[in-house]
Design a protein that fits this description.
With about 210 residues, the chain is an alpha+beta fold. It has 2 domains: about 100 residues, Ribosomal Protein L22, Chain A, CATH 3.90.470.20; about 100 residues, Ribosomal Protein L22, Chain A (Alpha-Beta Complex), CATH 3.90.470.20. It contains 6 helices and 9 strands. The strands form 3 sheets. It has a 4-stranded antiparallel beta sheet with strand order 6-9-8-7, covered by helices on one side. Strands 1-5-4 form a 3-stranded antiparallel beta sheet, with helices on one face. Strands 2-3 form a two-stranded antiparallel ribbon. A hairpin with a 2-residue loop joins strand 8 and strand 9. Helix 2 packs antiparallel against helix 3 and helix 5 packs antiparallel against helix 6. The termini are close together.
């Protein structure tokens, strides 16, 4: 039986932004995650990576996957997307500034979270689909930042869900329909994905999950 509802977790990692706390907590994540954490130069980046690892472990436990680090092996595919070798479930991780986000499901998933900063017209022109450009273009100036990041996270998370990154050529899809509304479902090469995106505090977030019927 396929569980169609994903598990989504978002956490603030600012409480971990202390070298003493980081070193005390390292044992709570895998050896691979520890190596990744210690490569970062700044404490905020180390705390963010640690928080993402801890959130993933919590998500695996809640979702019912075996969260024992002796039994879980995580690898990355040719496009850099992480996956569980035993295939117990699918997951994806994102983090930005102080927030970490994890999604787990029994089908392919992708997620993205970004702190809302300044919009970027060059990215809109280069990477957004025509309907997305149109929505952004008619948005009042005071709301452009939020719309930019909602579209950006929706696009990034979809690319992660289909196992692609920002590589050329960028797959053709749109998170906005022809009538200017958000698309809750996207079809891509015979596959169907459904998702959600919005604003959370000072962040934009999005996720997509493959619908298996």
């Amino acid at each position: 039986m396929i569980i169609q509802q994903p598990l989504i977790l978002i956490a603030d990692t600012s409480i971990l932004q202390c070298d003493a706390v980081i070193h005390k907590s390292l044992s709570q994540v895998s050896a691979e995650r520890q190596k990744k954490i210690l490569k970062f130069k700044f404490v905020r980046e180390r705390a963010l990576s640690l928080g993402a690892g801890m959130l993933l472990d919590e998500g695996l436990r809640r979702f019912g996957c075996d969260a024992s680090r002796q039994k879980i092996t995580i690898r990355t595919d040719d496009h850099g997307k992480p996956y569980l070798v035993n295939g117990a479930c699918f997951f994806n991780v994102s983090h930005s500034h102080q927030k970490a986000m994890v999604i787990l499901a029994q089908a392919e998933v992708g997620c993205d979270i970004e702190r809302v900063a300044e919009s970027n017209d060059a990215i809109v022109e280069a990477l957004f689909a025509p309907n997305e450009k149109a929505l952004y273009g008619r948005t009042p100036e005071g709301n452009k930042r939020e719309i930019f990041y909602r579209i950006w996270t929706a696009r990034e998370s979809f690319l992660k869900a289909i196992g692609r990154g920002l590589v050329n050529p960028v797959p053709e899809f749109s998170t906005v329909s022809e009538d200017g509304t958000w698309s809750p479902v996207i079809g891509y090469k015979g596959r169907t994905f459904w998702g959600q995106h919005g604003l959370y505090e000072d962040y934009a977030y999005a996720w997509w999950m493959e619908y298996l019927g």
